[in-house]
Amino acid sequence: MDLTTIWFLLVAVLFTGYFILEGFDFGVGMLLPVLGRNDRERRVLINTIGPVWDGNEVWLITAGGAMFAAFPEWYATLFSGFYLPLLLILLALIARGVAFEYRHKRPEASWKRRWDAAIVVGSLLPAILWGVAFANILRGVPLDADHEYVGGLLDLLNPYALLGGATTLALFLTHGAVFLALKTTGDIRERAGALAVRLGVGAAVLAVGFLTWTLSIRSSAAAAVLAVGAALALLGGLAAAKVRREGWAFTGTAVAIGLAVATLFAALFPNVLPSTLDAAGTLTATNAASTPYTLKIMTWVAVIFTPVVLAYQGWTYWVFRKRIGVANIPQH
Amino acid sequence: MDALDVARWQFGVTTVYHFLFVPLTIGLSVLVAILQTMWHRTGNERYLKLTKFYGKLFLINFAMGVVTGIVQEFQFGMNWSDYSRFVGDIFGAPLAIEALVAFFLESTFIGLWIFGWDRLPKRAHLASIWAAAIGTNLSAYFILAANSFMQNPVGFRINPDSGRAELTDFPAVLTNKVALITFPHTLAGSFLVAGSLVVAVGLYHVIRNRDSADTGAYRFATKFGSWVVLVASAAVLFTGDIQGKIMTDVQPMKMAAAEGLYTTESPASFSVLTIGSLDGSREVFALKIPYLLSYLGTGDPNGTVHGINDLQAQYATQYGAGSYTPIIPVTYWSFRFMIAFGMAAAAIALLVLWSQRKGRTPRSRWLLRAGLAMPVLPLLANSFGWIFTEMGRQPWIVFGEMLTRNGVSRSVSLTEVLTSFTAFTLIYATLAVIEVKLLLRYAKAGVPDVSEQHPIDDTHDDAERPLAFAY
C-alpha cells in the first residue's frame, strides 16, 4: 500500500474516531434540556462527559493537522471553500467548550441558563454541520482547474447534504442518549434508555436513506459492505437499547457511526474532494498529497504515538467508568 | 479595505488573543504541578490549598486557551489557503505532531487531573498534572518550530514544477536556530506571566486579608511567584539577547526595523528614542547609546548593523521591485514596549520581595496597586513581542519565499472574511469580560478549605458518595 493510501486511511480513522467520541458528547449536550429536568440532573448529564470531552475534541484537531500535513491541497481547498459552515462550527465549539468549564462557576440560575443554551446550540450546530460538510465532500463541489472552490454557500445546502446533516444529528442524538443510559443511574438512566429507542428509529430511517443515496452517487464494493454493516450495527444497537442492554447498545451505535463514516471515505476513495465542474479540478489522494518524505516522517510519528494515545485515552475511560447519578453531585 | 487586510487583522487579533491565555497555561501548569509536588513531599496542607487555589485559576484560563487554539489551526486553511498549499508539506507536519504528541497528552491528563482527585491514587493524580504540563510545553515547541520556518525557512527546497516548498530535512526544521532560541524565550515570557499572577493574587491577600488563617500560605505564594518572575526575567533577557543576534543574522531587516536604523552603521548605537520622518525614510530626532546595538546584534561593539534603506535596496535587487520594509513605528515601538513591560514586572517582583524581607508584612497600598498590575505587564510584553516578530517579518509570510499578500485565500470573499472577523471579535470580547470577572471572583475568594477533602463517609455507600469535583 502506498503512503498516500495509508494517509487517506489515517485521516479516515481520525475522523471516524472523532465522530464516535464527540458524537456522544454532542448528543449529551443537545439532550441537556430534554433529559435534565433540573439543575442537578443537568449537572449529572454534563459530568458524564466532563473528564473526556476535551480529549475527544483533540481527535478533530489531530484530523485537521493530519489533513494539513498529508494533503495540504485538500485542507486548503476544503477549509477555504466550506468557509461559513466551518466558521459556525468553530464558534459553536468555542461556546460549548467554555460553557462546560464556566457553567458551575457561579450559582445564579440565569448564569447557568445561558451556559446551558451555549452547550445546546454549541452541540447542535456541529452535529448538523459536520453531516452537511461530509455529504458535500462526497457529492463533490464546484472546483476550478486550480482546485479553488468557486461555488457559494447555497451550493453546500443541497438536499443530499441537508439529509446528511439530519442524519448526523439523529445519529449523535441517539448515540448520546445511549451513552447517558450507560453512564447514569436512576431516573435519568430510565428516561435516556427510553428516549434512545425512539430517537434511534428516526436515526435508522435517516441513516438508511442517506447511505443509500450516498451509494447511488458514488460507490464501491467496500463502501456497500460498510454501509450494510453500519445499518446492521445500528439496528443491533437499537435492539439492545430496547432490552436495556446498555453496553451493547452503546457498542452498536458507536460501530454504526464508525462504519457510516467509513462508508463515506470508502465511497470517496481515491478522490478526496471531487469537482462537479471540470474533472481536472478534482482533488485525489495523489494530487492533493504531500511529498513521500513528509508522509514517511508522519507515518513514523503516527505509528509510534497513536498506540500510546489510544492507551492513555482508553485508560481515562476506565478511570471514569462508574455511573453517576444525582446523589453523586456535590453541592458546589 | 480588501479581504487581505481583514484576513491579516483577523490573524493578528485572534493570535494575540489566543496568546493571552497560552502563557498562563504554559507557566501555571508547571507552577501548580510544583505546588502539588511540594504537598506530596511534605504533606503540608498549605501547599494543597495553594495547588487547589491556583489550579482553579489555571482552569478558568485553560478553557479559553483550548477553544481559541482550534481557531488557529483552522484559520490557515480558511483565510490563508494559498499559504497552506505553498508550505503544507513542511508546516503541516509540526502542527499534526503537536496535536498527536502534545495536545492529546495535555487534554487527556488535564481531564484526569480535574476529575481525578478521588478517582486516582495520589501519585497517579500528581503525575497527571505533570503530564498535562509537559504536554503544554511540548505543544509550544512544535508550534514555535512551525512559526520559525516562517521567520527562517530551512530544510526545504522549492519544487520547480509546482512552485511549492517541499520538505527535504525534517530534523533541520525542528532544530531551526530560530526555533531553538524562540522556544526558551517564549517559555521564559510565559513564566513571567504565571509568576506575576501568583504574586498579584498572593499579595492581594497578604495586604487585604491580613487576619486570615492562611496568611502563611499567601506569603509563601508571593515569594514563590516573585522568584519565578525574577528567574524568568533573567531568562527572558538572556534568551532575548541571543535571539537578537540570530535575528540580525537571518532577518536583518527586522533588527533594523526594531531600531528604526535607517542607514547601515558600524559601530551602531542603540536607539533609546528615535522619531522618524512622516514617510518613514529617515530619522528626525534620535537619542542613542553608542556601540550598544552593534553589541546586541553582533556580539561585537564595532560590528556592522545594516540599515533599513540599504536592506530595502538590496532586497529590491534580489526579489524585484517593491517595498520590503515593515511598518517602522509598529516594529520600533512594539520592540520597546515588549522590553519595558517585561522588565517592569521584574522590578515590581523585586519590590515585593524587599517588602517581605526578614518576615516583614507589606502594608503599602502603592505596592498592592503595583502588584495587582503585575500580571498585565508581561501579558502586554508577550503581545508586543508577537506583534513585533510577526509585523517585523512583513511583507513576507515566509521570509524570502512568499509574500503575505500571495498567501491569502483567493476563493474567500471580503464579506465572508468580514463576517468571520466580526464574529470572532464579538465572541472573544464577550468571553474576555466573562473570563476576567471569573478570575477576579475566584482570586478574591482565596484558598479553599481542604480539611473536608476526600472524606471517608461511612453513612453513604460508595455509589452515593459525592464526587470530589464536578462541573
UniProtKB/TrEMBL annotation, chain A:
Membrane topology field: Multi-pass membrane protein
Signal peptide: none
Record's subcellular location: Cell membrane
GO biological process, one term: aerobic electron transport chain
UniProt keywords, alphabetically: Cell membrane, Electron transport, Heme, Iron, Membrane, Metal-binding, Transmembrane, Transmembrane helix, Transport
A GO CC term attached to the entry: plasma membrane
Transmembrane segments: 6-32, 74-94, 115-137, 157-182, 194-215, 221-241, 248-269, 297-320
PANTHER family assigned to the protein according to its UniProt record, in alphabetical order: CYTOCHROME BD-I UBIQUINOL OXIDASE SUBUNIT 2, CYTOCHROME BD2 SUBUNIT II
Family membership: Belongs to the cytochrome ubiquinol oxidase subunit 2 family.
The protein, known as: Cytochrome d ubiquinol oxidase subunit II
Native species: Micromonospora orduensis
Gene (name only): cydB
UniProtKB/TrEMBL annotation, chain B:
Membrane topology: Multi-pass membrane protein
GO molecular function per UniProt: electron transfer activity; heme binding; metal ion binding; oxidoreductase activity, acting on diphenols and related substances as donors, oxygen as acceptor
Recorded family membership: Belongs to the cytochrome ubiquinol oxidase subunit 1 family.
Protein name as annotated: Cytochrome ubiquinol oxidase subunit I
GO cellular component terms listed in the entry, alphabetical order: cytochrome complex; plasma membrane
Entry keywords, A to Z: Cell membrane, Electron transport, Heme, Iron, Membrane, Metal-binding, Transmembrane, Transmembrane helix, Transport
Annotated transmembrane regions: 20-41, 53-71, 91-115, 127-150, 187-207, 227-246, 333-354, 366-388, 408-434
Lipid metabolism is among the record's keywords: no
Organism superkingdom: Bacteria
Coiled-coil annotated spans: none
UniProt xrefs under Pfam families: Cyt_bd_oxida_I
Subcellular location(s) per record: Cell membrane
GO terms classed as biological process: aerobic electron transport chain
